[in-house]
Amino acid sequence: MSQLKLVVQIEEEKEQKAAQAFQLAQQNVTAQKQKLQNLQQYRLEYLRQIQNNGKGGVTAQKYHQHLSFIGKLDKACEQQMGVISRASLVADDRKKQWIERQKRRKAVEMVIENQRIAAERKEMRKQQNTMDEYAAQKFYRAQKEKY
């Protein structure tokens, strides 16, 4: 039984490591989403700035530069969405690994519990047999004394 307790301890450690990996992966997804939000916010502010500056008039070259930069920001946003997608897949994978580790630990704990219950039942049967034997001997002696 102590070997199984060692297995449970090892499984608990693996489960904790898997939980930490999942947590780190979730934090990465959150950080990547924040980066996207920052990029989108910067793009929006840049567009507002262009509108404000454009009221006074801009040259064609300046207008082209602004459009080019907006295109680069759009591309950066698209790339960041890809990063978020990959990070989410990693987080999902880490979650699955964590859940699998939980299942393994619980399975070993269930084996230990079943063994404990079986040992308890065996002990109860042993005690019952002892009590039955004692009662039978007492009955036998009582019958012997009658005759």
From TrEMBL:
InterPro entries: Flag_assembly_chemotaxis_eff, Flagell_FliJ, FliJ
Main subcellular localisation: membrane
Spans through the membrane: none
Topology with respect to the bilayer: Peripheral membrane protein
Cytoplasm in keyword set: no
Localization: Cell membrane
PANTHER family assigned: FLAGELLAR FLIJ PROTEIN
Name of the protein in question: Flagellar FliJ protein
Organism of provenance: Alteromonas ponticola
Gene of this entry: fliJ
